[in-house]
C-alpha cells in the first residue's frame, strides 16, 4: 500500500509535527479567533507528520476503495488529532461524499446503523471502520432523504442531512476534531484553527457554545473527556454555559449515558475526569445520590476511597491491565449503599443481610433512572458488596469456600481499597494476602467455556482401529392421519 510518497514513521511528535501544530505564520491573527471564523488551511504532505504507515490497514482499504470509486475519502477527527499529538489512535473514522446506500454497494462487509444520523460500519472481523457522509446544515433541507428534527429545547432528534466537507467541518463539535487527512494527495485540512488550538493546549467549541450544547447535551461530557484525555484546557467561552446547561443531561436516554460513563471513567483518565465533572456541575446530573455525599473540601472518607479507586483504575489502564464497569460502579455506589444499610438497620432492626439487600436494591434502582447499568453488571456489583461482609469471617473452612467464589479477587481488591480509609480492615487484608500466596496454586478455574484443542491434539492421528462411536440418528416421527392406526 505504501508508495514513494513517504517512508514509514513511528507515531511520535516529530519536528514536522510540532511545526504543523505551532507555526506562527499560519495563524489568522495574534489574538484568539472566534471559533468558526478561521480560513481553511491546507498543509501538503511535507508540512505535517502523518504517514500512511501510522494508519490501520483496514482504514486505508476503505479510503482507497472510496477514492477509486470516484468518491472523496478523508480520515477525520480523533484519529488525525491523536496522530498529530504523537499518540496511537484507538480507532479511525472516515468521511465521504458517498451516501450510506452507495457505501453499502461498495462493501460487502458493510452494515448501516443509526437513526439519529445514518452511519456505515465496515466490518473487518473485530475491527470496525466507521464511515459517515458529509453532514450538512439541518435547517436548510427537509426532504425524504434529508431529514432533521429538533425538539422545542433545540436538541437534535434526527439529523440525516448531507452536505459538503466545509459544512461537515462546521458541524464538528471541537476545532481539534475538525482536521481532515485526504487520501488523494496526503494533505491535511484544518477548517477552524484546530492546529492553533492544539499548540495552545486549548479545547474550543465550534460555533455558539450554548446552541451546540442544546443541540446535543452530551457535548458537555465530551468536552470534559477530551480535556482530561488530551490535557487541554476548555476555553472560557466554551466552559461558561456548562454549569447553566448541565441539567439538560436529564433529557438524554439513560442507555446512552451508560456508554458515555464508560468512555469517561475507563479510558485511563478517571481521576481528572471526576474532578472536571464536579467542577462544571455535571457529576450530580449523572450520579445524583452519590453527589449528596460529596463535601466542599473533598476530604470525607468516602471521597478519599473513591479517589483512590479512580487512581487505581488509571494505573491499571496505564499498565494494560483490565478494568470493568462492574468494579467502577461497585466503588462509585458503595458510599450510598453502606450509609443506607446502616439507616435501614437502625430504623427496623433487620438482620444485616436483609438491610443490605434493601440498600442495594434502592441504590441500583435510583441509579438506573439516570444511567442504565445493564443487569449483567449490577448482579456482579451485588456479589462484590455482599462479599465485603463475609471476607472478615474467614475462620475454619470459610476461607476455602470464599476463595472459591467467582468474584473473590474483585471483592478482595475492593476490600483492599477500603482499608486505605478504614484502618480496622488492614489486618484482614494482610491475612488474605498471606492466604493467597500459599493457596493460589490450587485455586479452581471459574470458566464456562470448553478448553481449546492444542496444536498437538490437532496433529494427532486418528485411531483407525477404534474409531469414535457415532451418535445414533433419531428417527423422525411423522404426524398420523386422523383415524390411522400405527402399524406395530
Automatic annotation (TrEMBL):
All copies of domain Poly A polymerase head, residue ranges: 74-203
Question: What does UniProt give as the signal peptide span?
Answer: none
Record's superkingdom?
Answer: Bacteria
Broadest EC class?
A: transferase
UniProt biased composition (Basic residues): 468-479
Q: Tell whether Transcription is among the UniProt keywords.
A: yes
- Region Disordered, as annotated, extends over 1-48, 442-488
Q: Where is the composition biased (Low complexity)?
A: 8-20
Q: Does the keyword Membrane apply?
A: no
Polar residues: compositionally biased ranges: 24-35
Q: What's the Enzyme Commission number for this chain?
A: 2.7.7.19
What are this entry's molecular-function GO terms? ATP binding; poly(A) RNA polymerase activity; RNA binding
GO BP, one example? Answer: mRNA processing
Q: Which residues form the active site?
A: 91, 93, 173
Residues covered by the tRNA nucleotidyltransferase/poly(A) polymerase RNA and SrmB- binding domain: 231-292
Q: What catalytic activity does the UniProt entry give for this protein?
A: RNA(n) + ATP = RNA(n)-3'-adenine ribonucleotide + diphosphate
Q: Where is the composition biased (Basic and acidic residues)?
A: 442-467
Annotated Polymerase A arginine-rich C-terminal domain ranges read: 349-477
What family does the database annotate?
A: Belongs to the tRNA nucleotidyltransferase/poly(A) polymerase family.
Q: What does this protein do?
A: Adds poly(A) tail to the 3' end of many RNAs, which usually targets these RNAs for decay. Plays a significant role in the global control of gene expression, through influencing the rate of transcript degradation, and in the general RNA quality control.
Name of this protein: Poly(A) polymerase I
Q: Which organism is it from?
A: Tolumonas osonensis
